[in-house]
């Protein structure tokens, strides 16, 4: 068996990204947000940002909900996929992250279509549900893992029939396959998948990935029309 290494994954991502994915100064700055906060690189990978962009365009999304803004990297990719008059609502619990994201979003030229909320998502999501706004076409969940089942429940309530939900970081280094793992994030992701398996309104798949961000994966769910 030919065991791939992180160096090889980086090289392959670098090759594809150099040919297929143009990243301007605004995206590059958002991708470096973690450096100022002395944190690990929390943003989606460059090619996954482009994947989100393409999913939104393929789906014809006009309204997008993002749970977990961080530095605004995925926010910019998604906002740039929207047509004129489109709207992206993004939620971030940490005020300093949201402030940094706002600067990157402004620099990217998409601030006019992005609505930022700062605070606990499980407090903000009910308010969105009660606002009378149109349902969302696409929801991207990239936030704390113990609460993913609750985020997904709100995504179902806030999305239109035929809507798409993408959940990031669902592999957790392979720990998701361990039913006895004690980490709350692992148990949250497992509860989320149990919900998916039992939810008749949803058809879904989860994909393992490797690349510059290491070994991870995401879930793609389609809400019945």
Automatic annotation (TrEMBL):
Coiled coil: none annotated. GO terms for biological process: methylation. Pfam families: Methyltransf_3. Gene3D superfamilies: Vaccinia Virus protein VP39. InterPro entries: Cation-dep_OMT, SAM-dependent_MTases_sf, SAM_O-MeTrfase. Keywords: Methyltransferase, S-adenosyl-L-methionine, Transferase. One of its GO terms (molecular function) is O-methyltransferase activity. PANTHER family: CAFFEOYL-COA O-METHYLTRANSFERASE 3-RELATED, O-METHYLTRANSFERASE-RELATED. This is O-methyltransferase.
């Amino acid at each position: 068996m030919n065991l791939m290494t992180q160096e090889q994954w980086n090289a392959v991502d670098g090759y594809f990204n150099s040919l297929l994915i143009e990243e301007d100064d605004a995206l590059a700055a958002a991708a470096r947000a973690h450096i100022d906060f002395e944190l690990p690189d929390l943003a989606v990978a460059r090619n996954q940002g482009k994947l989100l962009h393409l999913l939104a365009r393929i789906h014809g999304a006009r309204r997008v909900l993002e749970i977990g803004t961080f530095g605004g990297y995925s926010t910019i990719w998604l906002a740039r996929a929207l047509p004129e008059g489109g709207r992206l609502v993004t939620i971030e619990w940490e005020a300093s992250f949201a402030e940094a994201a706002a600067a990157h979003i402004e620099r990217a030229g998409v601030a006019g279509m992005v609505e930022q909320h700062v605070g606990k998502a499980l407090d903000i999501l009910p308010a969105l549900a009660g606002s009378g706004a149109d349902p969302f076409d696409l929801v991207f969940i990239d936030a704390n893992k113990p609460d993913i089942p609750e985020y997904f429940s709100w995504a179902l309530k806030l999305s239109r029939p035929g809507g798409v939900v993408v959940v990031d970081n669902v592999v957790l280094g392979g720990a998701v396959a361990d039913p006895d793992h004690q980490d709350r994030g692992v148990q949250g992701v497992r509860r989320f998948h149990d919900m998916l398996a039992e939810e008749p309104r949803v058809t879904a798949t989860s994909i393992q990935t490797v690349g510059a961000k290491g070994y991870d994966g995401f879930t793609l769910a389609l809400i019945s029309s």
